[in-house]
Write a structure and sequence with these properties.
There is one protein chain. By secondary structure, the protein is mostly helical. The chain has 2 domains: about 90 residues, RNA polymerase sigma factor, region 2, helix turn helix motif (Rna Polymerase Sigma Factor, Chain: A), CATH 1.10.1740; about 80 residues, Winged helix-like DNA-binding domain superfamily/Winged helix DNA-binding domain (Arc Repressor Mutant, subunit A, Orthogonal Bundle). Helix content is about 75%, strand content about 0%.
Length: about 180
Amino acid sequence: MDEDLRLVERYIAGDADAVEDLVMKYQRQIYAVLYRMTGNTEDARDLTQTAFVRAMEGVRGFRGDSSFKTWLYQIAINAGLNHLKQNRRQEVELEESLMGHHSGALSTIIEKERRVSIKKGLDELPERQRLAVILRAYEGLSCAETAQVMGCTEGAVKAHYHHAVKKLREILKERGYAIRP
């Protein structure tokens, strides 16, 4: 039995400390994916809290068919999608640390323009393609985990990801940025 399942069982048995351990383990990852979805720190914080509250309220329904991490990501993604639909916000902010660091003022300006172009390119993608890129490329989930989170097959994830990368390359090429194949 893995550590997450032990923590879930401890929580169900009444051990309040177990939920703290789960929150500490996954809070940053859940916040990061929600921040990328919303592009807003306050929304991401609120949605992270919402995701954990919903998870703990529904933990008795967790069957263990997938990992706890995947189940939690599904809850978080659903909360984020509901939020985006309600507020009609389609922004995805890429974190500076993911884009690398360059020295010099000109390099900094060029890199910032590139990040903005990638962000805008992601915003132009259909929702499923954008989620596939966020979960696979930025969150590092496996194809199987991404499929579970998105509620589709691994083949569908691969197709969404492939089409998203292809479209992003086209968008960035139009904007003057060459992306390696």
